[in-house]
Amino acid sequence: ELAYPERLNCVTAFVDSHVAEGRGERTAILAPDGTHWTYADLAAEIDRIANVLTGPLGLVPGNRVLLRAPNNPTMVAAYLAVIKAGGIVVATMPLLRAKELGQIVDRAEIALALCDDRLMDELTKTAGSSRFLKRIVGFSELKALAASAAPTFTAIDTARDDVCLFGFTSGTTGEPKCTMHFHRDLLAICDAYARNVLKPTPDDRFIGSPPLAFTFGLGGLVLFPFRVGASTVLLEKASPGDLLPAIATYKPTICFTAPTAYRAMIPNLRDHDWRSLRKCVSAGEALPKATFDAWEEATGLKLMDGIGATEMLHIFISAPEEEIRPGATGKPVPGYEAKVIGADGEDLPPGKPGRLAVRGPTGCRYLADDRQRKYVVNGWNVTGDTYVRDEDGYFWYQARNDDMIVSAGYNIAGPEVEAALLAHPTVAEAGVVGQPDPERGMIVKAYVVPKPDVTVTPALVVELQSFVKNEIAPYKYPREIAFVPSLPRTETGKLQRFALRERAAREAGEASSAGLP
Ligand code: 3UK
């Protein structure tokens, strides 16, 4: 059981404790702009900004503050300063446009925003049409104000159950949902998942790609390193092409990114020195076994898969390296329980696919949203994923519930067909959805990005089809395959299946050679 004191401001545990206990000179943050902040430097930055927030910017506890920036040191200092001052952080994805920012501002009733100067335009447009947003402070203005503020600030005496973070889901279906998390939740993900599964030490150095506005990135690039006094490398640009050179430069030991990014890095590993890495975490989407195998073959490292969700704050099913079962997501993180349930909420036995339900130290609290009753049922969080549990308690991902393809009466999980295709040497990426079909209801349609230098021919279509029939049950093979230069993805690295489904619906009925030259 995780027990935290009744009065708790989590920033004290993430930063101040290291300074107070003599670790102030250890490195906290490194960045390509030359930043090298010790924990003492970070603590002073946070405190100066907290003084600006509570002084000239008029923040009072409970106020929500929007943050908009790429992953950089000022973003992290501002993030923790808002929380230390008793405010609630609402971090936003850098690619969001004025309309989406406006939805967030209105839902969260945000009056103050702190924004990287390079990303001001869309936010300024939002402010023009919002009755809530009153003040946008650019990072350069914030730094100027902070430069003349005092470098010490006493943390606001919040309760462990005070909200400190609003996490917006990406909203692939309908409006984005706003989830609320407490001070203790930010510690709980470190003390459940990180301590028991990832097991970082103070000498670890973290790196990765997820935006800090995505709780996968917040945990992996800020909270997990800071909980143990380790260091983090913050990259504003972290595509697979940027990540490998950064790994060679900064020699990190732990990497956080999406399964597709690991896959994209494999062919280029030989050109960069990645050998400092000792642990690699994959989340956000299912990790295909072919990607796990290829990464292990190239590096000798086992990718650590883990399923997390904005609603749960971070990862709740995963496995320490020595317990990894390739192809499975893992077992419930210590402190969490998980089960597979049927249509009426009944527990299903091992081997039967059903909806995943979890409970533990973190959980879903939507801000004023009817969907709460759908996500949390009898105290269990129902994530919307279809899973199978095996006899040994490992959980095997099948699909998002709405990514199941029903074809001629069969239930086919798109990700399983993708995983089969990815095992073929010509396939770089694959996205599989249902395409409306007059006879079968749906047929399995695959969008395939071929590896560079692969010549796309009708024979390759046939070859991929028979390859899939050999890998998995033959009825699951893609009746149509279209070759595409890239697949649509969200800023969090997820395949945008709804976009592929729309495309497939448009292409329904066209020749099965769609996409061939
Ligand atoms: C899917 C996975 C299979 C799954 C997240 C780690 O992804 C995160 O949060 P989101 O709210 O999406 C949640 C949904 O994404 N998913 C995530 N990881 C996996 N599916 N295998 C996986 N390993 O559908 C889940 O319901 O964007 C991930 C940490 C924090 C996060 N917020």
Structure notes:
The structure is a single chain. By secondary structure, the chain is an alpha/beta fold. The protein has two domains: 10-389, Rossmann fold (3-Layer(aba) Sandwich), CATH 3.40.50.12780; 408-507, GMP Synthetase, Chain A, domain 3 (2-Layer Sandwich), CATH 3.30.300.30. It has 15 helices and 25 strands. Strand 12 (279-282), helix 11 and strand 13 (304-308) form a beta-alpha-beta unit. The structure holds 5'-O-[(S)-[(2-aminobenzoyl)oxy](hydroxy)phosphoryl]adenosine. Residues 169-170, 215-216, 283-287, 305-310, 314-315, 329, 383-385, 397, 400, 492 line the site of 5'-O-[(S)-[(2-aminobenzoyl)oxy](hydroxy)phosphoryl]adenosine. 5'-O-[(S)-[(2-aminobenzoyl)oxy](hydroxy)phosphoryl]adenosine binds next to helix 8, strand 13, strand 19 and strand 20.
Query: How many structural units, i.e. domains?
Result: 2
Determine and state the CATH class of the largest domain: Alpha Beta
**Could you estimate the helical fraction of the residues in percent?**
25-40%
Q: Please count the helical segments.
A: 15
Mean pLDDT: 95
Structural class: alpha/beta
Shape: globular
Q: Could you give the count of β-strands?
A: 25
**CATH hierarchy: architecture of the largest domain:** 3-Layer(aba) Sandwich
The CATH superfamily of the largest domain is known as ANL, N-terminal domain
- The order of strands across the largest sheet is 2-1-10-9-11-12-13-14-15
Enumerate the spans where pLDDT stays under 50 for 5 or more consecutive residues: none
Radius of gyration: 23 Å
Main sheet makeup: 9 strands, mixed
Give the percentage of residues in beta strands: 15-25%
And the CATH topology of the largest domain? Rossmann fold
